[in-house]
Amino acid sequence: MTTSDLKITRKMELLAPGGGIDAIKAAILAGADAVYCGLEKFSARDRAKNVPIDDLPQVVYLAHQHDCQIFVTLNIILLESEFSSIVRILHRLSNMRLDGVIVQDIGLLYLIRTHFPGIRVHASTQLTTHNAGQLAFLATLSTVRVNLCRELNMEEIKDLTNISHQLGMETEVFVHGANCLSFSGLCYMSSVCYGNSGNRGRCSQPCREEYEPTPQGWRFPLNLKDNTAFMHVPQLRDAGVDSLKIEGRIKQSNYVYRVVRLWQQQLRRLYSDLKLCERVTPLRTVYNRDFTSGFLDGVIHKDMFIDNPKDNSARYFLKKSGAVRYKEIKQVNQIVNDSKKKLIEKVKKKVARLSVAKVPLEIHVSGKEGAPLCMTVNTSLESFNVLSDTTLFRSQRTASDDGSPVPKAHNQLNKKLFLHKLRAINGTAYQITDVNMSRLDTGLCIGYEEIVRLKEKILYRLNGSLSSVAPVELPEIQRANDQEVTPQLSVLICDASDLFLSDETDANFYFELPNQLAPNWESYAALFKKWPMVTPWFPEILIGDDFAAAVALLRTVRPTHIVTNNSGLAQMAFEMRIPWTAGPYMNIANSFALECLKRDFNCNGAFLSNELNHLQLKSIPRVADMALHYSIFHPIPLMTSRQCLFHQVTGCEKSEVSSQCIAECSKSASIVNMKGVSILVEKREGDYHRLYFDRHYLNTSVALEMPNVFSSYLVDLKRIPTRTRIAKSQRELILLFEQHIHGSATATEQLHQSILATTCNQFAVGI
């Protein structure tokens, strides 16, 4: 067989969204190979209907009857207080024939690997995986599949898939549905503006909101078209991609059915070497915001935006028809609406035919004195026997010789006893409808432990020959001792002209590197060699050559310590034995994540997420040999985007984002939504485009409320032009912050008098 033949016969999984049971049924009927769905807790789509955990065994059973897999999304960052609940959920999931879970939180990845190794783990798109180091990081945590970053182009996907396969992991690529403007997992816009964290599944989509008209006349300047790779299936196959993910867990079942069906038909054409459908027109008949494949094509163009967040299907067909008169427009709209109604009714009828009711199960009990107890289990699909390890016996006694009752473990067998001892079976996809004892001689006994063993044997057979997993106690984390912690001040800069400050104070200094490192990494290496006491601070996004440049910088400089917001650089620092600290955008929110980073990656400290409120921060115990850090003054990033955010705001002479744009562009603008929330649009040389809140974060409370917790407090002095006004020089500001963290009330008061228009709302609201 030739390489070409292998490409044609290799099939990719079609992964469909299941926001509720009806949507899951629709996906199964449409031919999905797998469905991802959330539970009522711990899912990154809080607005979806989701699946009650008590119904999940039946859902898994139904899917498996149709050769479809089920993956459960546990893809949010977790709070310390939630780990007791998540352990109980994982125990239940581990005793189902579930095909995998999708995870974002590093602490949860660690918990599953160490205590639930039988659960297959997929890395969520919320982990923003876009470089080789991140793949190695996730492989260490026993991840079997990685959902690659949505912003990657086909060549980048191909390169990372090749590396992923070498590490024994599959890759999954987002191929259809709503595009996020931000790199996933790094969007704090909803959290900051409205207290609804996207990292907790509560995104209120402020990027889709209407804004005051921009100078370019746009009212929805942050609204991307939907993604589709419908015509890219040959390239995805040739790139080695294992799974194609359709977005849409808040979409209705008719949408899921239509989109999955069309994608399945397209893939069948590919596998049969037939002519592919070369238009996305059939996909336009259901909800869409128009379509783009700009990220996959590597052409990040201004046409990827649309100035309307609503359904574009009717507008498309109106434009295509050329209708201009009222009667013509009404007729086209009627055709579109009638088509949708027919689809809704069709899918409704199809879905109704599938049942997620529990499978009836009968048990026939038989046996004679001196023989094993036999249980014959009958379902609609199979029948099997299980035998006790010990034999039945007859007890004539009702009391022992001293007058005490016969031990319960030897009471006579009866139907009520069996129903009670076998009730765990009803927690699966099966329901005991009858226990028939007509073939069991009367007056017989057997030890209760034997009935328990028989129950386990039945569950083993019903669960596809998988042994039951015993309950797991929430593991103890080795805590740091209660010795007093004397915090230090840390200062973050990104301009070489500010390096002189490091010679004038006792504060630790971090120098933030840009996203685009490849062209200038050698000059940054020279900078760190000249200023060896300044710590490199690596950004959250490092793609392709820029990641390679960051690794080259590490090898050349061999710094004594780094801070990284990118797990790929963390992996490389670990391999090079360079001490490292996890930055604030690694979304660390619990002690299990801290324990993971320490034990598996030799991390010596971490910034806790600024999304947490004071109570959520206080609940995180200090972990032994892990320093905790917290940022108390900084511009508040709302998102990082690979797109240009100025096309619709102030305009740009270039229609596409190029490497030169990233390297040279430097500009700022602001937009205001109809609720009066002001957003800063910012682009700095060498960085991707970012949105910032219009005020800096200033928190002087944390040092007073949480003594002996943080080893350092960070002050970010990057010059981001928010509305915050500072009446002191940088040197004066550093000295005031140093005095503040060491308890000076006067310095605290002067800080509030000198820094105007700030917020610390997240410290109060949390996630």
The number of distinct structural domains comes to 3
The share of residues in helices is: 25-40%
Q: What are the low-pLDDT stretches, counting only 5+ consecutive residues below 50?
A: 1-8
Main sheet attributes: strand count, strand direction, barrel closure: 8 strands, parallel, barrel
CATH superfamily of the largest domain: Aldolase class I
CATH architecture assignment name of the largest domain:
Alpha-Beta Barrel
Tags for this model:
TIM Barrel, alpha/beta, 25 helices, 30 strands, single chain, disordered N terminus, 3 domains, eight-stranded parallel barrel, 767 residues
Structural summary, described in words:
This protein has 767 residues and is of the alpha/beta class. It has 3 domains: 3-179 and 225-353, TIM Barrel (Alpha-Beta Barrel); 360-462, no CATH class; 489-636 and 696-765, Aldolase class I (TIM Barrel). 33% of the residues lie in helices and 21% in strands. It has an 8-stranded parallel barrel with strand order 1-2-3-4-5-6-7-9, surrounded by 6 helices. Strands 17-18-19-20-21-22-23-27 form an 8-stranded parallel beta barrel. Helix 17 runs parallel beside helix 18. The protein is globular. Residues 1-8 have low confidence and may be disordered.
